[in-house]
Amino acid sequence: MKPIVFVVLLLVCLGSVAVAQDVPRYEISGAATFLRDPANANRYGWLGSFARNVNDWFAVKGEAAGYYSKENARIHTFVGGPQFRINKDAKVSPWAHFLVGAQKDHQFVFPGNLVPRTYFAMVPGGGIDVSLNPRFSVRLGADYVRGFRSNSLDDVEHYRLQSGVVFKLP
What we know:
This protein is mainly beta.
């Protein structure tokens, strides 16, 4: 009985690997970002992410981003979670993610100090990848970035746009 179970499990595992071979195993992306602040402040920055594709429609993603303004205030996010994709093999591939983690704010306070604060963060969003070849895509996306403070009236909401590139690794 044990050899039959082993053979069945082996066939299922090898079959799933054979089906998923055309999907890149890893995706590394870098992007320029625009973050709209609730106080009508614009922030510009960077974003880097790493995703491990589990199959052709689901990936586990980690992301780090930084946003900066003229007032010397900074925001950094470190989040991770699931990413879902439709039409992985198409020229244009829509995606959505729901990421959670931490948001760190550095607020400028008089007389010239930066005070860091860290909050729980949530980043739902989505976008499209436009494939230029099997290993390279251009990414456009939009996200809602929310930092949860101890008092819900003080929660920080941001809207983010990103444009960048995706490198797909076998």
